Amino acid sequence: MRLRLTLPVTVLLVVLAACGGRADESAPDAGGTPIENGADTAVPNAEVPIDPIQWGPCEDLPAESPIRCATLKVPYSYEDPAIGAFSLHVKMRPADDASGRIGSMLVNPGGPGFGGSSLAPSANYYFSSSLLEVFDVVAWDPRGTGLSTPTVDCIDDYDPYFGLDSPPETEEERIALIDATSDFNDQCSSRSGEILPWVSTQSSAQDMDSLRRALGEETITFFGFSYGSELGGTWATMFPNTVRAAVLDGASDPNEPPLQQALNQAAGFEQSLNTFLAACSADVACEFHNGGDAEGAFDRLFVAIDEQPIMVSRERTAVTQGVAYVAVAQAMYSDYLWPDLERALATAQRGNGSGLLKLYDDYYQRNEDGTYGNELEAFLAISCLDNRDVSTVEEVEATVDQFIEVAPRFGANFAYGYTCALWPVAGAKSVTVTAKGAGPIVVVGTTGDAATPLESTKRLTASLDDGRLIVVEANRHTGYGANQCVVDAVDRYLIALALPTDGLVCSE
Fold it and tell me: 273 with 332: CB under 8 angstroms?
């Protein structure tokens, strides 16, 4: 579960109830028109016909599975539906207690770019039995992602683009990064140019209202993780009187300028890395202990990798400094991954980069057969559409010192990303997230979250018309499930609409 995946290297500035019945053509459509929200125009969703959901068996699941599947057709543009349409892939896990069912709970795992439909068959892993008893868990692959069609598709092999050395220290390395980025963008335009203007977060928020209408529910519940918090906040702002309850977990403030968001995230990863290294220095059992100087050993190792990348296989990218920083970023999402990073760094000291390459592959969702999904491509398409605040190489490079100041180790890798500056599509209109009129919204943040630092989570909560914060003390991204305190508080809110104390702190 991620929010705006940290893509250091060449990629970007930055690296899971209404008493609604089943869908019925005569179901009311309360709140189908977005309010004025900071965008130049508000689009009347209710003017676009949406067919009721028709559930059936899922082709990718066993026939005996209780999970149901459907396809929902939504327009590329709600202002001009004739342009074209996406077919959204939707999965639903029925409530365990049909007689006590509250309604549907829309869920999103983060990204952007990750298909969310898998949360329905995996709901037992993400959500408590209390929630599963009373909610239909409705998950979908947002436009351009997963099994929804058409999807964003750019390249097949990531290594030539993301295995390059970074940050560039010579003009030759700088030109190589720019050329690789330009080629990547050209391929995205060639393969997916038709849909690139239509995959913004604002458009996906409109799809959420279309999904609510298709389900026949006047108001609906939402639970979003990571980037799902931005999506949910945008939806609640655009369609406030359709919100029964909403939880935004692992949230950052989408109202901050994109550069500041990126700086905040760079600082968050730097803080988590410092915590990891300090813990390793203090623990003789840490495989990267280095006599109590894990920090110094880390810096020396990365200088050595920069001077001489580690070759693991002739068929794969060498472990460049850029690859190594992606590997470290992957491990910063949870201290559960810290032992893997300890081993990977220790073996890299001995000239074996396989552990770092494995973390790099995990970050980019590489399959065992060497193929990739479309998560990264969709991530970039959505992110650049939402946050295109730079349009030249020079503008990107002018920010490098700011990144290094807030993140001496990670900063330059965050700064040197040219993708959005050279992106072939103009940015989308933005929505100022306030959720005014939506009622109380619960926001969850963790103290050791690298991807969505707690201070940014607090700023989002303050931006909401009625935000209620829960702080979870943990070194991980997203807080629900970290301990019983946060699970109980969130469940009481979602089920009974009982609000937690604002600022509630839940310890491990």
Answer: yes
402 to 346, 388, 408, 415: CA distances (angstroms): 31, 18, 10, 9
* Per-residue pLDDT reduced to its tens digit, 399-418: 999 999 999 999 998 888 89
Rg for the chain, CA atoms, rounded: 22
- The answer to whether residue 212 is domain-embedded is no
At 201, list the tokens: 């977060």
Task: Tell me whether residue 192 is in a domain.
Answer: no
Instruction: Please give the tally of structural domains in the chain.
Output: 1
Which residues pair with residue 223 across a beta bridge?
107, 247
Q: Is residue 389 part of a domain?
A: no
pLDDT digits (tens, 9 = 90+) for 353-369: 999 999 999 999 899 99
Query: In whole angstroms, how far apart are CA 8 and each of 157, 311, 356?
Result: 18, 20, 15
Residues 6+ apart with CB under 8 A from 485: 472, 504, 506, 507
Cα 471 to Cα 453: distance, rounded to the nearest angstrom: 11
Residue 462 has, within 13 A of its CA and on its CB side, a CA count of 9
Q: Quick check: pTM over 0.85? A: yes
